[in-house]
Amino acid sequence: xxxxxxxxxxxxAARYHTGWERAWRSPEPKTHYDVxxxxxxxxxxATAYYLGKNHGIRNVAIIEKGWLGGGNTGRNTTIIRSNxxxxxxxxxxxxxxxxxxxxxxxxxxxxMFSPRGLIMLAQTHHEVRGYQRTAYxxxxxxxxxxxxxxxxxxxxxxxxxxxxPRYPVLGGLYQARGGTARHDAVAWGYARACSDMGMDVLxxxxxxxxxxxxxxxxxxxxxxxxxxxxxxxxxxxxxSGHVAEMAGFRLPIESVALQALVSEPIKPCMxxxxxxxxxHGYMSQSDKGEMVIGxxxxxxxxxxxxxxxxxxxxxxxxxxxxxxxxxxxxxxxQWGGIVDITGDRxxxxxxTPLGNCFINAGWGTGGFxxxxxxxxxxxxxxxxGEPGPLAAAFGLDRFREGRxxxxxxAAGVAH
Amino acid sequence: xxxxxxxxTGGRLLNRARAVEFNFNGKRLTGYEGDTLxxxxxxxxxxxxxxxxxxxxxxxxVASGAEExxxxxxxxxxxxxxxxxxxxxxxxxxxxxxxxxxxxxSLEYDVGVLNNYVARLLPAGFYYKTFMAxxxxxxxxxxxxxxxxxxxxxxxxxxDADRYEHFHAHVDILIVGGGIAGLQAARTAAASGARxxxxxxxxxxxxRAPADGSVVDGIAAEEWITKAVEDLxxxxxxxxxTRCMGAGVYDHGYALAYERVADHLPANGQPRHRLWRIRxxxxxxxxxxxxRPLSFAGNDIPGVMLASAVxxxxxxxxxxxxxxxxxxxNNDDAYRTAIALKEAxxxxxxxxxxxxxxTGPLARRARDLGIRVEPGKGxxxxxxxxxxxxxxxCAQSGxxxxxxxxxCEAVAMSGGWSPVVHLWSHCGGKLTWDETNAHFxxxxxxxxxxxxxxxxxxxxxxxxxxxxxxxxxxxxxAAGRAAAKAAGFKPEPGDAATAEAEEVQPMLPxxxxxxxxxxxxxxxxxxxYQNDVKVSDVQxxxxxxxxxxxxxKRYTTLGMATDQxxxxxxxxxxVLSQSLNSEIPKxxxxxxxxxxxxxxxxxxxxxxxxxxxxxxxxxxxxxxHQANGAYFEPVGHWRRPYCYRRDGESTEQAVQREVKNTRxxxxxxxASTLGKIIVRGPDAGRFLDMLYTNMMSNLAVGKCRYxxxxxxxxxxxxxxxxxxxxxxxxxxxxxxxxxxxxxGWMEDWLQCEWWDWQVYTANVTEQFAQxxxxxxxxxxxxxxxxxxxxxxxxxPFMQWADGTIGGFSTRVFRISFSGELSYEIAVPAGQGRAFxxxxxxxxEEFGLMAYGTECLHILRAEKGFIMIGDxxxxxxxxxxxGLDWAISKKKDDYLGKRAQAxxxxxxxxxxxxxxxxxxxxxxxxxxxxxxxxxRNANGQRNTIGRITSSYYxxxxxxxxxxxxxxxxxxxxxxxxxxxxxxxxxxxIRARIVDPVFYDKAGEKQNV
Lengths: 415, 1007
Fold this sequence. Notes:
The complex is a heterodimer of chains A (415) and B (1007). Chain A is α/β, with parallel strands linked by helices and 415 residues long. Helices cover 30% and strands 26% of the residues of chain A. Chain A folds into two domains: 6-82 and 85-89 and 183-253 and 344-401, FAD/NAD(P)-binding domain, CATH 3.50.50; 118-181 and 255-342, D-Amino Acid Oxidase, subunit A, domain 2 (D-Amino Acid Oxidase, Chain A, domain 2), CATH 3.30.9. Chain A has helices at residues 6-14, 42-55, 87-101, 103-107, 125-141, 150-156, 183-196, 240-246, 310-322, 371-384, 397-401, 408-411, and strands spanning 32-38, 60-63, 79-80, 118-122, 146-148, 171-175, 179-180, 200-202, 207-213, 216-222, 225-234, 253-263, 273-276, 281-285, 291-301, 330-342, 348-351, 357-361. In chain A, the strands form three sheets. In chain A, strands 1, 2, 8, 9, 10, 11, 17 and 18 form an eight-stranded mixed beta sheet that branches. In chain A, strands 5-6-4-13-14-15-12-16 form an eight-stranded mixed beta sheet. Chain B contains 25 helices and 50 strands. Chain B is of the alpha+beta class and 1007 residues long. Helix content of chain B is 23%, strand content 28%. In chain B, 57% of the residues are buried. Chain B has six domains: 1-157, Ubiquitin-like (UB roll) (Roll); 164-290 and 418-486, CATH 3.50.50.60; 293-415, FAD/NAD(P)-binding domain, CATH 3.50.50; 525-587, Arc Repressor Mutant, subunit A (Orthogonal Bundle); 617-898, Probable tRNA modification gtpase trme, domain 1 (Gyrase A, domain 2); 906-1007, Elongation Factor Tu (Ef-tu), domain 3. Classes of the chains: A alpha/beta (415), B alpha+beta (1007). At the A-B interface, helix 1, helix 3, helix 5, helix 7 and helix 9 of A face strand 6, helix 3, helix 4, helix 14 and helix 15 of B. Strand 16 of chain A pairs antiparallel with strand 31 (599-600) of chain B, so a sheet runs across the interface.
């Protein structure tokens, strides 16, 4: 792999950029791999990357029905934070956030991690208490957050109306090293690095069945033939239930559409990411200048990755209250992605009833921020067959034992 | 500059009798009523109107409608300022003020154009390959530069001065697009009796037909349109709207339309925009087609325009795009532009037709007018900086060797037409590739489907891919007929309008001009004008493996500009498919997402802003609270008094006063917001036994019982006192926040699981005002007011009774959330204020003071009573809180019972509720955690407990807290540490104690 750099660009410019090589190969499937990962989204690619980097397992295929990064990796609002309340969540999200800090350098691909700061607004006394509690928890978890005053909120986000008539801002949970990254680049950077390690990213390859023998996985049937494997990892957010069914087990998951939208681009006016859970909306400004806006999930289960409008209305209404100036911006585009929601709204990184088959699912509305950490923890689980400390709490057995990791406690539902 | 390019005649949309003054970049200019801002700018010879996104290249008006990528302006001032407004869809009005965007210091001299000079270093995706070192530089240097140079318009600063509203419409057939196809479809559909809503995005009916010179039913299109509109206006079942754009199509026939009511009449008192939320049985999209540019070197230089736009400006607005316009095309339609220009007295030095032959009737007519027609030719290169000065022409089949240079001020280009398929596609309609016309058109066999699996969108006219007037009309009639039939009506055998068939020479797909252009030329061929995406960028993406059309789009930003690829997408994916040696339909399109063109956030928010943002729920006593210094807190949609501040008092002082007074004398609480749900029916007792952990079926009539509700997962979700009203009827009190949720929860179980149980529920929260009379003097006050017997004997603790007090008809509950002698008294909501006033007046001699929610919280915390949302957070089971006594052992089942038997729920190591007293009397911060030894496997400090409630107790004059602690109840008297936040802060040490701090024996409430 040729390294990317300013010098490489200058060299290529001299020959009109005709010398750039493919970012990732487009190989024919082999008959057998040590590990097959179903799903070339961020989580699947990151799992492959850390399998290679941390565990030396490189005979890996990442199989993708569509185009890599085309699911929720390419549809989210790119928010990165780790100010979670519960210990297991804080651990994996902080691991993830810290990996994001150096990911551009690690991958030699600029994923534009932008630690511009993130505020979760407290707009009721109840929320103030919840976020103060989170700040105390974060301090013991090694996550740097602070509860800040309304005046400080206003200073960080001058376009905000902190004295709105209905829900004045009473404070906020601030994570200075939270922020955003370029979502597509995360998938592309991992794919390029995986391909460079000799792994096969097989796009437009649909898995149609999971093969097993004596309760242990042996391979998958795909639209490009049967491919054998020693281990299988299912990482297919939005379709986890489907693929788990192929592997013969059920998941405690409901799939619903999450709505998002962007405005037309304007000059920089907001440096930090703001989430307002009482009124249900969150907003940041992309490097292109678009206001990137997210809201709630649709109230019904659904597999179509389409926008509906009622949540867009609710979200925009909420954000006009919070940021009156956006009233005169225009919505450029809305879209939907399918998110897998578990009973406790925390993810599943787990062994499964099928031997040597593992699943990574249920990140709900907040999976993008978790990509590196999730990949790191999942790679360890797949490589060793047992979860390491990051994944330990997220096993499927927790639903049977009642050992939930409920984040709705303090954080509301939005991500 | 400054020179008028308005033609002496022509301009069918203009009212030349009314001049309109406007302002662009500080210059005072004049247009006419009927102009768009774009046509008025062109008429003032203002060709340069903006700068592109990435290279800051000069940009001119390209189009005449919603597809315009370049002519975006900052419009208006102050509370009516709006960025990125399209000049081509902005109607001119008196005093309009606009500035151009994305440049510094000025439109003419923009420093950002430096990017243009190093453009070779900035190909598609260059930012993914660099700016990585040093690491901190991205945040502090590179990113700010990128952000500042991107972004187009300025951010609005002021609060929006306009208002917006929502309309709801239910129609049989929604027709989008008021061109001749939309009008014909409406005529046909309306004749069947169906209720028809016809919307047109511009201010004018008729679409392109008048400018194209079409003839319908033997008369000029314009005449036919006027008549069709008149006819439709007369019909009661038809509703017509101009300035109303079909914005989106969603599941099950839900559609969105965006009406720009007052954009052209700012501040006239009307809402600025109106968002139509439409339920239609059938939708017909008659949305026309958009012309495609051609990809030749320098095709982005101001003065290069779509041929159809040039025609529009001449025919509709009487504007000359330049004295000399070179036409370049791959199809017949652009000849109409050449002819229109010539007939307007302007010079057309040449028509460059990429097709090897130019033999159709339009070509003949052009030749007859003396226009030089050059078949097989194209443009090698456009010469010019901020304005076209000439073009170099070449053979289309070659590599671009210039044959000749033709001086000109404008270039009219046409690469063919693409149907507007957006609305068709929003909800899943599929497309098919039409080889003849080289465009994607809707595939009628794969329409978006409704709840019955039937297609609910039809297309009409050019939106179907029809290119001739005759076929457009036929198709529109068929669409109107089909929609009427599908909506359940019988269309009449019709008299659809007709047009003469035209002889058309087939178009020739031309994706790169000339065909063999080398890389240097391809780096100057723009696909996406706004985002600066060139042919070479898409080819680079393909080379680097971004083969999916979605990858190519995201890597190059093709089609991601504010026009969402209306001009660029088809050309871009054709280039991509060529680069991949694939076919266009195999490459496919990116996803069409709502809205069709951007719609204002204000319109989406509608009326719901400020005080109307969400409904405010107020108790009947709200006005009294407000008049008596209440500091309100939002609790759900309610506003409840947090405390009542007297003159000079701080919030804390007010709360302390209220607590002391209630303990020592008499307090009054407006508890009207507490949920009150009537549960009635033969199975009501059985139902409540399932809902509550306690037994409720055996509660005696006249008695009250405190109850707990858990989720299926066993977690405590609500609590409250249940009273049995009669044999069949229970009244369930819930928390304020829980009222609606718990009522929904009850109905969920009754409707989905136990649908055969005979139970009715009614949420009567708002039907009653409820007032808590609390404190040692409570009985004295009620006795003074007179009426029913409220003695301990007649109405003991945890009983209720109906009766009169002070002449009011009341229901009195002897329940207490404060530990004091307490009566909660319900009266009909309409009597609430009067009863409150009577209590206040009568209570004066007993030291009565109203108290708010914070006092309520402190009173209950002093008593060790749990609060839903404080001691619970969705992860707490009753057993954690020492509430085992409220869990019936006699019942087979209740919601949550099985879950509470799971291994983690019965784990003896679960944290349990205790009281906590700081050693020094200080208040522990709410939410603080107690630390144990060491760290866990993830390096986090081990914790052994946390604070759930913490207050300063005025009664005890010290900090008190409740918390959940590892083996807490077994560790009474132990001291644990709570670290605090902030550098150098010391941990707080607290002793584990009983959670009941006050009146442990419960003597005060049971008197």
